[in-house]
TrEMBL record:
It holds the Pfam family PepSY_TM. InterPro entries: PepSY-ass_TM. This is Peptidase. The chain crosses the membrane at residues 20-39, 152-178, 199-221, 351-371, 391-411, 423-443, 455-476, 482-504. It comes from Pseudoalteromonas rubra. The keyword Transmembrane helix applies.
């Protein structure tokens, strides 16, 4: 396909500058987002088994819920039943709401012992997966704008520019797409391999990236979109609500849990109930938010669909689950959310999205490396912008990786202390991130990359090593994986350790052979006549 040279040049410039201005933010978002695909397993792994209650049979919820509401009437305001056997059967918030990253959230957990008696305990919420989700949505940018995290808006803008980079990059590649799509040229200049790998990752995963770019933009600015629609609707509510009920509710009239589950499953055939969240059970506004799962459907939530109903009358106010009366707009919205979250197809799709997220992070990193390689002068003197972008590329990407790995490596050891572990997570991540950033600017990208990758490999290795120590010395207070899901967290960490060690070795070889002027060049050291060290330029 032939495209005029001036058009190609325009699209190349657009692709370059939209990519270079967003790549580092998107690197963090994609890497953290890939990990969030396994949020339930991460939370189970990060929480000591002692802080969860024993599972019960499905029929026992009818007995458990009335006992809790009788002995803890405050739970009627917000109480959740969990049907996942890896979680406590019942929980409710003593402090916090569970919305967003609540560093000081505290929960009650409840269950029945072997004699059928109620047992409860108060446990601080471990927000490790929520912190990862915060990094995924904000790239770690702190602050709020109109009660919304500032980083959400920043990533929304980055996602829009990222969409432009995708389109412009595809147009720029069209003339040579069929010839070089699967080519990875190892001969000639090193930047050719980076270029071919970058193009291969981008084109092969183009539909996925378009979906993510569009959905992130909409998620970030949906309030702005609704505000624009309000100019058309005027005072008429965009989403009409039914008038609130004035009927007094008494907890003693609450139907059995098994009856509520049966009504929901009849409404959404093929779905199974994963949890029920009751609100205001002793008020006229009583409601139940039922999470339902059907892996063969595109689900609106990250893990499930939702059915909102009156727990006393079984009247369903709204539902995102696929059913015969669902409107075309509701299906479009569910598809929109489901494609972003990967909430369909079960574990197979979760692994695919995990790998696509990792590949996306590699795509953004390789784009920056290409920018640097193309602008490197042949001599030893490089421009100031070259040095700054080189330091930012290594500092931000490696800083985020080491920051996240540090949190995982420290998790079980931090749980031994009497402090708030969620504040410790934030302190560990941001301290490590900015430390690596400082090293990248002061020591240079090459040294930071070589030693940082080795450190990263050790931190990943520390994750399964902590479990080994827990098995050898059980009195310390650490714990080892209790199921296959939590074991997978440590297997992935071990794989990351080997991968980063291999990259560290290759980077070390590269810097030893590189020419002055490259960000990957480290001056060799030789002893002087006085026994000191001198740099050879």
């Amino acid at each position: 396909m032939k495209v005029r040279a001036d058009i190609l040049r325009t699209y190349q410039i657009l692709h370059t500058w939209t990519g270079i201005t967003t790549s580092l933010l998107l690197f963090i978002g994609f890497f953290a987002g890939a990990l969030v695909m396994f949020a339930p397993e991460i939370d189970n792994w990060a929480t000591s088994p002692e802080k969860s209650m024993p599972a019960i049979g499905d029929t026992q919820y009818d007995k458990l819920l009335p006992q809790i509401l009788s002995k803890h009437p405050e739970a009627a305001q917000n109480i959740t039943l969990h049907f996942d056997k890896s979680m406590s059967p019942v929980s409710w918030y003593e402090q916090g709401t569970g919305r967003g990253l609540g560093l000081e959230d505290v929960k009650w957990h409840g269950s029945l012992n072997s004699q059928g008696e109620l047992i409860t305990q108060l446990v601080p919420v471990n927000s490790l997966s929520t912190m990862l989700d915060m990094l995924h949505r904000t790239a770690g940018i702190i602050g709020e704008v109109d009660h919304t995290q500032a980083g959400v808006f920043v990533l929304g803008v980055a996602a829009f520019l990222y969409f432009l980079a995708l389109v412009s990059g595809l147009v720029f590649l069209l003339p040579t797409l069929t010839k070089r799509f699967q080519a990875l040229r190892r001969d000639g200049e090193r930047k050719r391999l980076w270029l071919d790998g970058h193009n291969l990752l981008g084109v092969a995963s183009l539909p996925f990236h378009i979906v993510i770019a569009v959905t992130v933009t909409v998620f970030a600015f949906h309030d702005v979109f609704y505000g624009g629609l309000s100019q058309l609707y005027g005072d008429k509510p965009l989403f009409p609500r039914s008038s609130p009920s004035k009927i007094e509710r008494h907890i003693t009239d609450l139907p059995k849990v098994s009856e509520i589950v049966a009504k929901v499953e009849a409404h959404a055939p093929g779905y199974t109930v994963s949890q029920i969240r009751f609100n205001n059970l002793d008020k006229p506004s009583a409601s139940a938010s039922v999470s339902v799962v059907n892996e063969s459907q595109l689900m609106r939530g990250a893990l499930n669909d939702f059915v909102f109903m009156n727990p006393y009358t079984f009247e369903i106010s709204s539902s995102s689950a696929a059913h015969s009366e669902q409107t075309i707009w509701a299906r479009i919205v569910s598809t929109f959310f489901g494609l972003h979250f990967g909430s369909y197809g079960g574990d197979v799709v979760r692994w695919v999205y995990f790998l696509m997220g990792m590949a996306g992070a590699c795509l953004f990193y390789s784009g920056n490396i290409l920018w640097l390689e193309k602008r490197r002068n042949s001599g030893t003197e490089q421009s100031r912008s070259y040095h700054i972008m080189g330091a930012l590329t290594v500092g931000v990407s490696l800083g985020a990786l080491i920051g996240i790995a540090s949190v995982f490596a420290a998790n079980k050891w931090l749980s031994l202390g009497a402090f708030n572990i969620n504040y410790a997570y934030m302190l560990v991540y941001y301290t490590t991130f900015f430390l690596v950033m400082g090293c990248s600017f002061s020591l240079g990208p090459a040294k930071t990359a070589v030693y940082g990758l080795k450190c990263l490999s050790l931190l990943c290795l520390a994750v399964p090593l902590s479990s080994v120590i827990a098995l050898i010395f059980p009195s310390i207070g650490l714990w080892s994986p209790a199921n296959f899901g939590t074991l997978c967290v440590e297997i992935i960490a071990l794989m990351f350790s080997m991968i980063f060690l291999g990259i560290a070795r290759k980077t070390r070889v590269r810097v030893s052979k590189n020419e002055p002027g490259s960000i990957w060049y480290i001056p060799k050291q030789i002893p002087t006549d006085f026994g000191n060290q001198a740099k050879v330029q």
